[in-house]
Amino acid sequence: MQVIETLAEGLKREIKVVIPAKDMENKMNERLADVKDKVRINGFRPGKVPVAHLKKVYGKSIMADLVNEIVREQPTQILSSRGEKSATQPEIAMTEDKDEADKILAAEQDFEFTLSYEVLPPIELKSVQGIKITREVVDISDEEVNEQVLKVAESARSYETKKGKAANDDRVTMDYVGKVDGEAFEGGTDQGAELVLGSGRFIPGFEDQLVGVKAGDEKIITVTFPADYPAKNLAGKEATFDVTVKEVAAPADVEINDELAKKLGLDSADRLKEIVRGQIESQYGSLTRQKVKRQILDQLDEMYKFETPKSLVEAEYNGIWSQVNNDLAQSGKTFEDEDTTEEKAKEEYKTLAERRVRLGLVLSEIGEKAGVEVSEDEMQRAIYEQLRQYPGQEKQILEFFRSQPGAAASIRAPIFEEKVIDHLLTEIDVTDKKVTKEELLADEEGEGSAKETKKAAPKKKAAAKAEDSEGEEAAAPKKKAAPKKKASEGDAE
């Protein structure tokens, strides 16, 4: 077998592989000899079929199998012998001419194919001793814990039916049908809907018009959807809602005590406060982690400048750009609404894609040299978390992970990168700094702390890779078109 390099330009490589027809024929004859005693052909005793006849009957199919095996196995072996790692699966090209293909299968012509790929660039790791990180830490006060516990208590508040008129803080249970231009619209109808007046859950003006209603009342409410309402067919339009009030209920007093805790499935009020404190610590810890990671990535980005494989950058960019356009479509906005143009946005996201790829390669190299590994237990826990997000589809998701090698890799990659960050935190200079909650939550966008935080569209990739965590929120679940406010305002149903 001849292996000839025909292109070595930057990271691009092209390899021509030639396997002489004689070698292919020899391999075929070995296979024929192996099957000679196994095949059964009418007119011949077992093991007595002439090789020439076997070749006539099975030759082409055996040669086709050989060709498939070669193009499946040889690229890996060739790259290994050259000491190269391909950025993506090498492209394989072979003759498409039928006559030439027939000659190859008949062992009358050399078998040739070409490998085209980009190599991963060599990365010479640099000392991380110069990296300095400020880790923002917030002290959680008892007052903040009590405020959150009170919110939990209010969400579990009970209501008692009352006969009088509805007032703010009362809960109204109702049926409604929303109409635009006299026609009911999709998502605008509900039965038994519960709404606490004054909660601000529904679009402006809706709740105000329910103040004073009583059980059994029928009322037509007229409102105008916000101009930036997610459903484009409703944004900025006037709508009416035919409302039938089923019940008006007054809120009971809220008390933070053991009884409330038991109602929530806990032993005591102290245990409730402990859990709430832990949740707050987790939320702040996540923000702290994001900011720390951002600083590490920014400094690594300054330290490493090298050519990145165009195939990886293009794949990353395509993923980002697809998500950007999906976000724009869902929000009903344009690039102009975001004070940019499509051309500028593309350039910014291409830069972001290149940064992500470069940092991913650097972190991969650091992790490999440090012996960072992802255990099977960690993989199983991550897959279980995926299953929890899609109840009822567990079987299909597990099958997807089994059948798609890339799916498991997409789960492993962020775990690996987080472990690399953990490793780096043991080697770099980290200084803790006490900050207020407001300082920790402050949006650093536009301050230059991370180049990619300057957004050209409403949201970057919702499921962004771990190597580029910037504190982005996953897209909020879709809510009914009416009469609730837009999903981005975070109203809970």
Automatic annotation (TrEMBL):
GO biological process: one example: 'de novo' cotranslational protein folding
SUPFAM superfamilies according to UniProt: FKBP-like, Triger factor/SurA peptide-binding domain-like, Trigger factor ribosome-binding domain
GO molecular function: peptidyl-prolyl cis-trans isomerase activity; protein folding chaperone; ribosome binding
Stretches assigned to the PPIase FKBP-type domain: 169-251
Coiled coil location: none
Catalysed conversion reaction: [protein]-peptidylproline (omega=180) = [protein]-peptidylproline (omega=0)
EC number: 5.2.1.8
UniProt KW keywords: Cell cycle, Cell division, Chaperone, Cytoplasm, Isomerase, Rotamase
One annotated Gene Ontology cellular component of this protein: cytoplasm
Residue span of region Disordered: 435-493
PROSITE patterns: FKBP_PPIASE
Cellular compartment(s): Cytoplasm
Pfam families: FKBP_C, Trigger_C, Trigger_N
Stored HAMAP family: Trigger_factor_Tig
Function, as annotated: Involved in protein export. Acts as a chaperone by maintaining the newly synthesized protein in an open conformation. Functions as a peptidyl-prolyl cis-trans isomerase.
PANTHER family: TRIGGER FACTOR CHAPERONE AND PEPTIDYL-PROLYL CIS/TRANS ISOMERASE, TRIGGER FACTOR-LIKE PROTEIN TIG, CHLOROPLASTIC
Family listed: Belongs to the FKBP-type PPIase family. Tig subfamily.
Domain notes: Consists of 3 domains; the N-terminus binds the ribosome, the middle domain has PPIase activity, while the C-terminus has intrinsic chaperone activity on its own.
Protein name: Trigger factor
